Amino acid sequence: MKAIICNEFAPLENLEYGDMPDPQAGDDRVVIRVEAAGVNYPDGLLVQGLYQSRPEHPFVPGMEAAGVVESVGPGVAGLHPGDRVATICGLGGYAEKVTAPEARVFPIGDMDAAEACALLVAFGTSHHALKQRARLKKGETLVVLGAAGATGIAAIQIGRIMGARVIAVASTEEKRAICTENGADAAIGYDDLKDRIKELTGGKGADVVYDPVGGAAFDACSRAMARNGRLLVIGFASGEIPKLPVNLALVKEYSVVGVFWGNFTRAEPQVYAGNMAELLGWYRQGLVTPLIEGRYPLKDAAAVLARVLGRGAVGKIALIP
């Protein structure tokens, strides 16, 4: 099968579009013929050796994929060849075929494959962040940084479902327009961020900040939190891991809360399954709609990842084998 192969931790342009052995369905695993593989920011970090995990080489990146079940192992009970499914595979998604354990495979019926991928990591991360980690309440103010990205769009839509007032933060007028189209009550830029948040909240500050950016934006938000607020640490797309003056958390009485969605899915599989069921229900009701910016040939993975890491993408991008 054709796949994107990482032979060493190296710059993105070193990724190879080549041949790998077809995966096999053993024990409780299924083989999926991939219709779409979701592109995520951590994929670009992983292949450069900049992520928390460092797989042995060679490996195929890609933590999510959707397609059609091609074969099943002898221990698989609820899936059959021909079923359309999506999976959190961890690795292997950037390929014509991928294998995954049945427990991490979800039926998707006639859903668009790229939209199904977006529901897995992007919407899954934002849902867990706002539901379990922030415990976002109706009537609270949610500030979303990196709001035009895949997880940001998800946070806007989910925040609205949970009854929050959503302030989106994005770098350009075009991105801010997309944020309001997806449900944000207000959309602002990064200039004078602390003062703008204070202004839009009547001086109170943000109840919850969703921050996948880090750097200077984190610093500004750390000074614009409401009492009993929750500052969610999602990631560091700016490339800068900020340092928090902990006296701010003390005197303003807010919490800094880490969000590591991958760890959550492993540590609390039943809660994770419940989250996915809720997300799929919202999707079928039309309450959440992933924004798919583009679908690109699998061979273009390196260029697509460079765009995602450069914060040039809007919404979700998918690779199509």
From TrEMBL:
User: Residue ranges of the Enoyl reductase (ER) domain?
Assistant: 10-319
Annotated Gene Ontology MF terms? oxidoreductase activity
The record's section on SUPFAM superfamilies has:
GroES-like (SSF50129), NAD(P)-binding Rossmann-fold domains (SSF51735)
Q: Which residues form the signal peptide?
A: none
UniProt cross-references to SMART domains, sorted A to Z: PKS_ER
The species this protein was found in = Lutimaribacter pacificus
**Lineage, uppermost ranks:** Bacteria, Pseudomonadati, Pseudomonadota, Alphaproteobacteria, Rhodobacterales
Protein name per its UniProtKB record: NADPH:quinone reductase
Q: Name one Pfam family in it.
A: ADH_zinc_N
